[in-house]
């Protein structure tokens, strides 16, 4: 695969007969395309394994992630998606959601000369999207600003590849949860990953991750204190120890975000309580 420009697997070309396509993300182990076809506009996710390098162990699970997300979408009763296998791993297709993500939408709030307070109705949209998943008995496991797409018809929470709780996954497509982006990782998840290499995604950890997402998007500051260039394990240690930065979002939204970022999971509000409090602001 290396060398030549990435291409959509033939099985996806056959399924969608694209009239236009654009590679939107090409990260280690995962590619995402925006694909236009006569059936509509789709996001196509294609996974392949990450081979070991000098400073990175092999990660075979990235090949399975799109199919695992497909199985989650199936369990959730979502419409208009498909998933399957290709030569190097698995793929899925799902409706394309138009709009900026939370981090991009709140960019004006982060400017040093900004007087724009973060819009609590945008926060409420994110809360509702996560509440919808929690109400069905799932934890998302990978809540982060890039996963909330704020579109004209509401807010969508994407990337369900790590979600858990609503039933067994097909064995061939399942893999253990090894934590998420450290900036959004709850202390109890960080501690478990440091101790065992794995953790259990929970709704409480999702609430923390949403609090961290709102804080970072509104202020540009991470929840915890650690250097930008620190190795991941050092960052995780700081999160596990709860080395909190003294940063707050202005106004009543700030107090609510603080409670979502409580160290102990049992001290955090549920997503439904957050929604209720936000609708009263
Ligand atoms: N359904 C979708 N609609 C619009 N954009 C999407 C969609 N799915 C993925 N994307 C875009 O692709 C990026 C990566 O997708 P994501 O689902 O997070 O996969 P991964 O984390 O495996 O790269 C997202 O941040 C978003 O910009
Ligand atoms: Mg993602």
From TrEMBL:
A Pfam short name: Pkinase
SUPFAM superfamilies: Protein kinase-like (PK-like)
Superkingdom in the source lineage: Bacteria
Xref: InterPro entries: Kinase-like_dom_sf, Prot_kinase_dom
Entry protein name: Protein kinase
Molecular-function GO terms, alphabetical: ATP binding; protein kinase activity
Residues covered by the Protein kinase domain: 1-281
Organism: Streptomyces alboniger
């Amino acid at each position: 695969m290396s060398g030549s420009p990435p291409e959509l697997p033939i099985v996806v070309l056959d399924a969608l007969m694209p009239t236009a396509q654009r590679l939107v993300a090409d990260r280690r182990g995962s590619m995402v395309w925006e694909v236009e076809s006569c059936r509509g506009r789709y996001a196509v996710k294609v996974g392949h394994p990450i081979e070991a390098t000098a400073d990175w162990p092999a990660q075979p699970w990235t090949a399975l992630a799109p199919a695992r997300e497909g199985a989650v979408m199936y369990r959730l009763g979502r419409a208009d998606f498909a998933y399957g296998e290709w030569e190097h791993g698995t793929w899925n297709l799902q409706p394309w959601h138009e709009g900026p993500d939370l981090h991009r939408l709140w960019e004006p709030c982060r400017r040093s000369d900004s007087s724009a307070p973060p819009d609590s109705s945008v926060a409420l949209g994110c809360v509702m999207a996560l509440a919808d998943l929690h109400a069905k008995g799932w934890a998302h496991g990978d809540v982060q600003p890039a996963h909330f797409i704020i579109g004209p018809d509401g807010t969508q929470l994407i990337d369900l590849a790590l979600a858990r709780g609503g039933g067994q996954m097909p064995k061939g497509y399942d893999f253990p949860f090894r934590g998420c982006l450290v900036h959004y990782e709850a202390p109890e998840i960080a501690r478990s990953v440091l101790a065992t290499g794995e953790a259990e995604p929970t709704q409480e950890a999702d609430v923390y991750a949403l609090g961290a997402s709102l804080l970072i998007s509104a202020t540009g500051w991470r929840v915890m204190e650690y250097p930008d260039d620190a190795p991941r394990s050092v960052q995780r240690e700081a999160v596990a120890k709860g080395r909190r930065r003294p940063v707050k979002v202005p106004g009543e939204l700030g107090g609510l975000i603080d409670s979502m970022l409580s160290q102990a999971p049992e001290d955090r509000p549920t997503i439904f309580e957050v929604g209720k409090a936000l609708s009263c602001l």
